[in-house]
Amino acid sequence: MRGGDTTGLRAYNERLVMNALLQTGMLSKAEIARETGLSGQAASVIVNRLLEDGLLVKLDKVRGQVGQPSTPIAPNPDGAYALGVKIGRRSLEAILVNLLGEELGASRVRYDAPLPERTIATAIAQATGLLGHLPPAARDRVVGLGVAMPDEIHAWSTELGLAAGALDGWREADVAGALGRATGLPVTLYNDAAAACAAEMIAGHAIVSRSALYIYLGTFIGGGVVIDGRLYRGEQGNAGAIGSMPTGPTGPDAPPGQLIHSASIFLLERALEAGGVDPSAALTDGSGSTANAIFDAWADTAAVELSRAVVSALSIIDFQEVVVDGFLPPAWRDRFTQRLSAALERFNRSGLKPALVTAGSIGPMARVLGAAMLPLKARFSPDTDLLVRPGMARDLV
Fold it and tell me: HTH marR-type domain location, by residue (predicted)?
């Protein structure tokens, strides 16, 4: 695979071809030319080069149609790989995927708190361990490593039950540098909820509109913004920080609270523990009458608080869709989404257009999967600055 050919018209056209095939699965050379707007000769030259590089493969000829049999071209699953690491407040996950985003290996480590040195060391161990799944000849086909982690992770010691300043080491921690030195890969950092939104756009099926507010119910609630079919990260990379939305009245002696303190999973975890229920088990299968009653009580409050933030967001950006995902069991996620939809109906929304409210399709793996898929998207999409939703290939031409 050519690592240095990353600029210029030739590289751009190669990305056009790869993007078209990754979105459609397979095309003939003639179809590739039509899909990308390239001439037949240019498409053929590029396809042959990508076949030689091992990024594409020829499939069996298709016969029985009018004219000459055609030979479909498809992405080679083993043509490229990427790693993803999710550093969370309660766990660290790592995943190795192939060019199609298929999981080749994964690991998960839980901890009570994301203490910086220990967490970074764990991330290095998990990432290098997954690289060991690949034969040596395939190592140079790993295009990069994406890291999904919360912004300002150092600021949440109190919410995690830690002493003040326990997470201050994150202020100066060089996560990308440490992982880059250990793996030899280019490393890119992403907001964890934005990475989850990217996973839904690339590998999921819930985002069906050109604009969407994506909400991820994690230990701390977060979000992502889709505008014109693209993941919008904002001028400072913090678009969709819905957890920072103010809630409650402003008093003379204290500022209002934030949504993160009223609609986050850490509150549900505390309630489950107080009720004698193991949070890890409950958040895995959602079974048990006690666990369900505790969830319902948390969801009733959280959905109302979140609905205010959603209506506020809809009044600023005319979102067509609101997608709710997270590391809730599917049944709980669906019930929460229904509660949010019902809570939105109680608002006076004069002057606002209705938005579809739906559950996400990926769940707990969304953040780490997004972290792994984004380096592949950056390498093989002609639009490297903004992520484009599958099905909108023509927007890139």
Answer: 17-58
Section 219-225 average pLDDT: 94
Q: Please give the Cα distance from 216 to 333 (Å, whole number).
A: 10
Structure tokens at 121: 């060391």
Domains of the chain: 8-75 (1.10.10.10), 80-196+367-374 (3.30.420.40), 205-361 (3.30.420.40)
Pairing of strands 56-58, 73-75: antiparallel
Integer-rounded Cα Rg, in Å, for the chain is: 23
- Strand ranges in 118-204 using DSSP code E only, listed in sequence order: 142-149, 187-191
> E-assigned strands of 31-90?
56-58, 73-75, 81-87
65 vs 381, more confident: 381
Kindly provide the residue ranges of all beta strands, DSSP E only, lying in the chain, ordered along the sequence.
56-58, 73-75, 81-87, 91-98, 103-110, 142-149, 187-191, 212-217, 222-227, 230-232, 246-247, 257-258, 321-326, 356-359, 387-388
Query: How confident is the model over 84-103, as pLDDT tens digits?
Result: 999 998 899 999 999 999 99
Bin 172: left if φ > 0, else alpha if -120 < ψ < 50, else beta.
Answer: alpha
At residue 116, the 3 state secondary structure works out as helix
Q: Which of 117-126, 148-157, 224-233, 262-271 has the lowest mean pLDDT?
A: 148-157
The Cα–Cα gap between 30 and 43 comes to: 8
- Residues 37, 354: Cα–Cα separation, whole Å: 37
pTM of the model: 0.89
The number of beta carbons lying within 10 Å of the beta carbon of residue 373 is 23
Mean per-residue pLDDT for 339-368? 95
